[in-house]
Every structure is written in structure tokens, then in C-alpha cells.
Amino acid sequence: MRFTFRWYGEKDDQITLQQIGQIPGMDGIVGALFDIPVGEVWPLEPLLKMKQQAEKNNLYFKDIESINVHEDIKLGLPSRDKYIENYIISLRNAAKAGVEVVCYNFMPVFDWTRTDLAKPLYDGSTALAYDYHLIAGKKPQDMVKSILGNSNGFVLPGWEPERLGELTELFKQYDGMEEDDLRNNLEYFLRAVIPEAEKCGIKMAIHPDDPPISVFGLPRIVKNEKDLDKIADMVDSESNGFTICTGSLGSNLKNDIPHIIRKLGKKKRVAFMHVRNVQVHEPWVFNEVAHKSKEGSLDIFEIMKAIYDIDFDGPIRPDHGRMIWNEKGRPGYGLFDRALGANYLCGLWDAINRIYGKK
Ligand SMILES: [Mn+2]
């Protein structure tokens, strides 16, 4: 298993590779080329550059998050074949640069949704939060405006302002699309991409919907165990894998995450682990918290134990952190709380190894 930390690149991240390399137990970065518009080919050269930059700081670059899937693929438009072709070339280039795991999502329009990017917690820290009451009866445009208003000037993945101009148009295109239609479009994509990923030694890792419920009437198909099973069955390959994001799946307390890890782990389909905690107040009202189990609704020890039990050998990363110690950073992606989260996960991992074996 490799402990990793998401990095937005030297242009877009206020956190340096040296800082990441100084986090105890950190093995690698999770990177992406944010300059490449969705749907275009990721060239080899900048990927190699990222690898060199990481290695200079004693970090691996073996994991990408995310090569985004073009909307035409999700919509099932005739133009999807061209974008699928590009996607496959991107995977090949990533493999040439030593990449082993590629995270992606299949959420229509929005990558993730929150109603507050800086909700004050009891200790004066702030965290991302979601409250469905605040969305009920609102237009997506209103939510987008409020999100962009408190992002500390950072461009958030999936919320790029240029994409949001097309929001009304996009919603029209999804009008009437059911979950099964979207599932068919995912299957079409996977049937084309997974054999190629397999050939070049890459594991694709679909990220759960965040939050795992329909927002603004859009279909969502990566919400729970049943959804994951359906996706696993679409193409029988270890390259058809999952990112188990505990914070996304865990915002629905009905999702038994250790069980899901063990079940998919048996089939070697757990490709990437995102571990973070959430505090769920009532269904679809939650906020993010520090990683420690007692701060939230998830038992992080049980989750780490499940990861141990499946002999997981892929990347794991702390996921979103709170803003603490007056840090001003990209919401969810500051340095301090994520570094603390990484250390907590490393501590649990060491203890589990001591108790149960010697991995
Ligand atoms: Mn995640």
C-alpha cells in the first residue's frame, strides 16, 4: 500500500512537493494535468515532468485523479467515440509515465456538491458541508454562484467557471435521462476503455457520487453497494476498479463501508482508497470533520482493518481536511488537517500491522 497526497501542480497548489514529502509516512502524490480541457488527450511530456518533480522529493507519481470523462460520453452522444479514443490515448501516455491507477467519476454535470465550503465547527475550524434543505427548491445556478463565492479564489475541480456557463444547456440535455440510461452509457465507455487499460497495466477507479443521491433531478449511479455491484459486473476485469471514498459513500449511513471493501476486495476491484470521516446529522445533512473516528460517524479503525484484510496494495490518501490554524487554502485541500489525517491513518495502519501481522 502506498500513502499518497493529492497535489494540484506547481501552478495551482499553494502546497509544495517538499511539504508533502515531509509528512511522515508519505510515499507519493496523486496528480493531474489541470490545463488539459476535458476530452482532450493528455500528452506524455507533462506527465513525465510531474513524475520527475515528485521523484526529486522522494515521492512516487503512480496515481492520477482524475482524467475526467467528457460530458458527451455520459450523455451517450455520437461524438463520444472520439472522446473515448482520446481517453484511451491518455491512459497509454499515463502508463508510459509509470501511472498505475486512474480515478474518474461518472456524475452528470457536477463532480461533487456541497452547500457550504466553510461551515464553522465547534472548535473554530471550518469544513465542507451539505444540507439538502438549502438546495430544495433552488436552481443549480444559485448553488454554483454561492459555491464560487466562498472558494478562496481557487478553481475547484468540476466547478470550472467556463463549464458553468453551459449549465442551463447541460441540464436540458439530461432532461428525461434515467439511471439505467446513464448506466448504459457507462457500460459503453467501460467496454471500450477497460480492455485497453488492462493492456497497459492501469486500474481504472470509479469514484462514488458525492453526495450519493440525485441532486437537481440528475441521475446518479454510483451511490451504494448495489450500484457498485452493477458496475463491477459490466466488465469482468481487475482494471474495472473502484475508488472507495469513505466520506462520499459514508454520508449515507446505510452504506456499510468495511463490508463493501471486503466484498470488492475479494474480486481485486478496490483500486484506490480515499479515507475521511463525516458527521451525519440526519439523512442528507452532514459536514466533514477531522479523520479521527470519534469526531464523526464513521469507524475509521474498522475501515483500515478491512483494507488490511483484503491485502490492499494500491494507493490510499487522506481525503478532504478542515481548515485549521488560520490556513487559507483550497476548500477541503489545505495542508495541515490533511497531513494530520494522513498521520492518523498511518498510526492506525502501524498498529493494525503490529496486532494482526507484519505487512
Ligand atoms: Mn473522495
Automatic annotation (TrEMBL):
Enzyme Commission (EC) number: 4.2.1.8
Pfam families with a match to the protein in the record: UxuA (PF03786)
Manganese in keyword set: yes
Signal peptide extent: none
Cofactor dependency: Fe(2+); Mn(2+)
Alphabetic keyword roster: Iron, Lyase, Manganese
SUPFAM superfamilies hit by this protein: Xylose isomerase-like
Pathway terms, separated by semicolons: Carbohydrate metabolism; pentose and glucuronate interconversion
GO MF: ferrous iron binding; manganese ion binding; mannonate dehydratase activity
Catalytic activity entry: D-mannonate = 2-dehydro-3-deoxy-D-gluconate + H2O
GO biological process: D-glucuronate catabolic process
Family: Belongs to the mannonate dehydratase family.
Functional description taken from the UniProt entry: Catalyzes the dehydration of D-mannonate.
Protein name per its UniProtKB record: Mannonate dehydratase
Taxonomic placement: Bacteria, Bacillati, Bacillota, Negativicutes, Selenomonadales
